[in-house]
Amino acid sequence: QVQLVESGGGLVQAGGSMRLSCAASGRASGTYAMGWFRQAPGKEREFVAALSWSGDNTYYADSVKGRFTISRDFTKNTVYLQMNSLKPEDTAVYYCAADRWGSGPTLATTAAYNYWGQGTQVTVSS
Known about the structure:
The protein has 126 residues and is mainly β. It is built from no helices and eleven strands.
């Protein structure tokens, strides 16, 4: 079992940057693939970015490629989502998720993940 806690959300102007953090705790948390998803009001939860359990592979949604970067600090059991050049359409609740030993393109699907954080609100003003 692993527990996930997101932080770092808030309000930012369009064109600005923000970094989200997801702290993982629990047994063997270092063996989990980590993903970021987001959900805007009235929309389904959508994939943003993911990192395989080894940290060797990253995956991004086309809408954030080149603007967002997912990274991991194994010593702190924390995954980050650096978001640059933010747009109003990036406004959503952002969730991190964990999947033990996960890798590959299936990490872009919500079904791949067993554990979810509570979410953090990101609002981008125009």
